[in-house]
Amino acid sequence: MPNEIFDQVTVAIGAHRQWKQRLQSVIDTGQSTLSAADVCADNHCDFGRWLYSLPPAGRNSAHWRDVQKLHACFHQEAGNVLDLALRGDKAGAQKRMAFGGSFAAASANLTGAMMKWKAAATAAA
Length: 125
Known about the structure:
The chain has 6 helices and no strands. It is mostly helical.
């Protein structure tokens, strides 16, 4: 499982980084094919589906619990930004996206926790 964790976390870091670009596009255009409710769900993305599909033994670590909690927070914040952007509140959406904003913080916290889990998986391999 350590190699699987390493691989899934590596892909997820890149995929979650792309959300910043997607959200900026929605802020700029006011249009999205996704709803805020869809984005808020942390089990609709590939990483979320994988995370929740792990057997109980795989979910019994502090790393899993930290990443699961922070992943849910990330999706909630992404949904909040999307909602603001779709309602035309560009300034509010940008504030959440900016350094120190709630989305930026959620993203940084999730990435940090995933990097720690990846390092632990590498050490265990």
